[in-house]
Design a protein that fits this description.
This protein is of the alpha+beta class. The protein has four helices and eleven strands; from the N terminus they run E-E-H-E-E-H-E-E-E-E-E-H-H-E-E.
Length: 227
Amino acid sequence: MNLNIIFEDKHILCLVKPQGIPSQSDKTNDEDLMTAALKYINNKESNTYLGLIQRLDRPVGGVIVYAKTEFANKELSKQVQLRQTQKEYLAVVCGNPENERAVLEDYLKKLKTINMSKVTTSDDKQAKLAKLEYEVLESKETEEYGILTLLKIKLHTGRHHQIRVQLSNSNLPIWGDNKYNKVFVKKKDFTQIALWSHKFGFKHPKTKECVEFSSAPDCYPFTLFNI
C-alpha cells in the first residue's frame, strides 16, 4: 500500500486514509492502514511503536493521525478524551436542509450484533449523548438523486457511526451510505460513502503548538461542488 503522507516528525504521522481501508487491523484480516504505516516506519527507523489517535470508519476517507511514541499517544489521547481536538468532516447528503446551520443532539445506542447504532432516548442506560453541528456549503440538483447538499460538519463527541446516524435521523442521509440511507441499502451496486475527514486539529504533543491538517476529496459526488 502506498501511503499518502501529509506530515511526519518524530512524534506523529499524519496520513490520508483511503476509503474502504480499515484504520487498524480487524477481524476481517484485510489490509489495514496502521499495519502499512508501521511497516513504512520500520523500514526507515528503529521505531516499532504506532498508536491510533482517532479512528475512522472503514468506508470513510481523509485525515487520520497516528502517534509514533507512547508519550505522543498519551498526550493526544488525553486531548481527545477532554474534547480538545477539532474534527471537521465534509459530507454530501440527499436532500436540502431547512436551515443553513444546525446543531444536532441525540442519544445513540450501539447495536453490536449488526455493527450499527440507533437514536434512542435519554433514559436508555446504554445510550450516550451525541452532538454535532453542520453548515450548508452548497446544493446541487441531480437527475438521479434529486437535490444533493454539501455539508461541513464539526464533531463535539465521537460516537459509533455518529455522523451517519444523526444525519439520517434528521432526514439528511449521506449519499452512498448502505447502512443508514434507504436508497442505497436497496442498491445492489457498491458505492463509496460521501463522508470525508476534512480537517483534524490539536496541540502538538511535544511543542504544544496548535496544528491542523487537512485533505480534500476528489471523488464523486464531492466533485459536483467547489471544495
